Amino acid sequence: RDSVASRGLGDVYKRQTMSSSVWQAMSVDGVLEDTGMEEEVLDYIFNKYADRIFEHTAPDDMPSYSNDFTLRHVYFYLVFVYMHTHPKTRQFKRTMWVRGMKNGYHSSHFYRYIVPVAMKLSEVIDELKWGDRLAFDNHCPAFPFYVTGITDTMPLRVSQPVHQSNLERGLYAVKYATHVVKLALTCTFKREIIHMSGIHMGAESDGAIGERTIDSLPLFPWERWLADGPYESSRFCIVPYRTLRIPGPSNVFRPLTAIQILHNRFFSFYRSRIEQVNATVRNHDIIEGRPFRGNLAHLDAYVKIIVHCTNVGIRQGKSRLDGYGWWPHAMSFEGP
Q1: Per-residue CA distances from 230 to 57, 121, 282 (Å)
Q2: What's the Rg (C-alpha) of the chain?
Q3: Of 78, 164, 201, 329, whose Cβ has the fewest other Cβ atoms within 10 Å?
Q4: Which residues, in sequence order, are bridge partners of residue 181?
Q5: How far apart are CA 274 and CA 185, in angstroms?
Q6: What is the DSSP string of 223-255?
Q7: Integer distance in angstroms from the first to the last C-alpha of the chain?
Q8: For residue 233, which phi and psi values (nearest 5 degrees)?
Q9: Who contacts 250 (Cβ-Cβ below 8 Å, separation ≥6)?
């Protein structure tokens, strides 16, 4: 029995080391530099979803230029290379390649072999845990009860549509003076992502997005999320105190009290955790680089993959914060 167990552990270790070395064998400038993801994240996602995203590629199909990895590994890896570097079509031959290839994939091969993998992965990937918001250590000293999440919206630039006036108007955001889509994320105090919505049309305000999406979520009546000012119309969000204009002919505003200023400082400190998550998600050129030009359904798939993979990295301890406390957010899940 001991020998069988030892062989089992040895097989697991062998699979893990082989899985880890696959990405290194393919990398050109290093796995993190090529894909923006740690090897452990790629290992986890590939091992969990490979059998569900490759319909026409067998597990043992090997490329002609290497025996160190399979075609499944190549297609999977290049999905992340594309999202991280977002090359133009004419740059594919020097970008969309792995070690051993003489030239990168042509755009026709990209759309035939790699895009379908990304689309399928976006359909099945599920790495956001809605229940994490109710964890007994999801607290902070300033908000020890009721607050279960921190939410924010960020823009993703897209190219101006041609000959589609309705879409052009829907994507144009006056706030940014350009065409964008918007992505809304919510995280816990530990920076774990618990919810994403989008992509949304850029012309829609952050407040309208929050009111339409957050208010329809299965939240308990007592739950609250920290958010920026535009979210004040959502019944589940609390926002910082703001100065109010005093009625009258003069343009005079009532100043904040010392307590309100102190509250806003604590509020801003803890709300910045969602901005830190946003910054990690933005660390890919498909989101933060040149304006995306192409099918918005493809962009939606790439964004979903990046968000879910980012959360895997956070849960693996790359940027996760320690929890605080060990108590429920309310007296009961039915209400305080």
Answers
A1: 47, 33, 21
A2: 23
A3: 164
A4: 156, 201
A5: 8
A6: -EEE--GGGGGSTTEE-----EEPSSSS--EEP
A7: 53
A8: -80, -15
A9: none
Q: How far apart are CA 234 and CA 250, in angstroms?
A: 31
Task: Look at residue 1 in the predicted model and tell me its pLDDT.
Answer: 37
Residue 130: the pLDDT is: 97
**Distance from C-alpha of 293 to C-alpha of 36, rounded to nearest angstrom:** 21
Q: Which residues of 240-307 form beta strands (DSSP E)?
A: 244-245, 253-254
Nearest CA-CA partner of 22 in 84, 70, 80, 75: 70
- Please provide the size of the chain in residues: 336
Coil/strand/helix, residue 159: coil
In 3D space, the residue among 114, 28, 112 whose CA is nearest the CA of residue 72 turns out to be: 114
Type of residue at 137: D
- Strand spans (E) along the chain: 147-157, 172-173, 178-187, 193-201, 224-226, 237-238, 244-245, 253-254
**For residue 17, what pLDDT is reported?**
42
DSSP state of 162: S
pLDDT tens column, 14-32: 444 444 589 999 999 999 9
Q: Is 333 exposed, middle or buried (0-12, 13-18, 19+ CB in 10 A)?
A: exposed
Secondary structure (3-state) at 315: helix
Point out which residues pair with 150 in neighbouring strands: 187, 226
Tokens standing for 31?
Answer: 């796995």
Nearest CA among 290, 283, 291 for reference residue 307 = 283
- Can you tell me whether residue 36 is helix, strand or coil? coil
Distance CA 191, CA 187 (A): 5
